[in-house]
Design a protein that fits this description.
Order of helices and strands: HHHHHHEHHE
Number of strands: 2
Shape: elongated
CATH class of the largest domain: Mainly Alpha
Strand order of the largest sheet: 1-2
Helix content: over 70%
Largest sheet: 2 strands, antiparallel
Low-confidence stretches: none
């Protein structure tokens, strides 16, 4: 018999797969249960509703996204261009998943804000370390008289405004990169 934690993980993995294949609206608890091969009681023991399970799937997905972005930022072997391109690839893929699969625009605003804050806060420290490293290497000069943590926060929140003011259906890497670099070059000189 599977342990409690294993059953919960099995349900989360199945839900992620089914949500990715069908989206939130078209996914039923039955579909998730069948994919996870669990009985109804097991499902509801761990997740009182499809909505709560869905929020946890999104939260996990965004945590994994922040881990990937953080790994890019702390990899000292990557050039600035590779870091920027890699982060943009992650951002665009995550935005498309968030809107197309998770139907993020239909989430309650409190859930959207909470997930957004979790994601942004997780990236501040790695971005600040990245900025500090580039300054130390003479590859970056801040144009504001603030510490690197504050600069990272300004970059993240300004970039967030740019990303969320862009039509997620029409977003291209080149357009987003141009907008973000235009913003960032007002804050730092490469």
């Amino acid at each position: 018999m599977a342990k409690r934690g294993e059953t919960r993980e099995k349900i989360l993995a199945a839900a992620t797969k089914v949500f990715f294949e069908h989206g939130f609206e078209a996914t039923s608890v039955k579909m998730i249960r069948e994919e996870a091969d669990v009985v109804t009681g097991s499902f509801y023991h761990f997740f009182p509703s499809k909505e709560i399970l869905f929020e946890q799937v999104i939260e996990r997905y965004l945590e994994e996204y922040t881990e990937r972005v953080s790994a890019i930022l702390i990899d000292e072997s990557l050039s600035i261009d590779v870091v920027i391109d890699s982060i943009l690839d992650e951002l665009i893929a995550t935005l498309r998943t968030f809107y197309d699969v998770f139907q993020g625009n239909k989430l309650h605003w409190t859930v959207q804000c909470s997930l957004n804050a979790i994601t942004n806060n997780a990236i501040i420290e790695p971005l600040a370390r990245f900025l500090t490293r580039l300054e130390g290497e003479g590859k970056l000069e801040p144009l504001l008289d603030v510490d690197d943590v504050t600069l990272a926060k300004i970059i993240i929140h300004g970039s967030e405004a740019i990303v969320h003011s862009t039509d997620e259906k029409q977003i291209t890497k080149e357009d987003l990169k141009a907008k973000l670099l235009d913003y960032v070059t007002k804050l730092v000189k490469f």
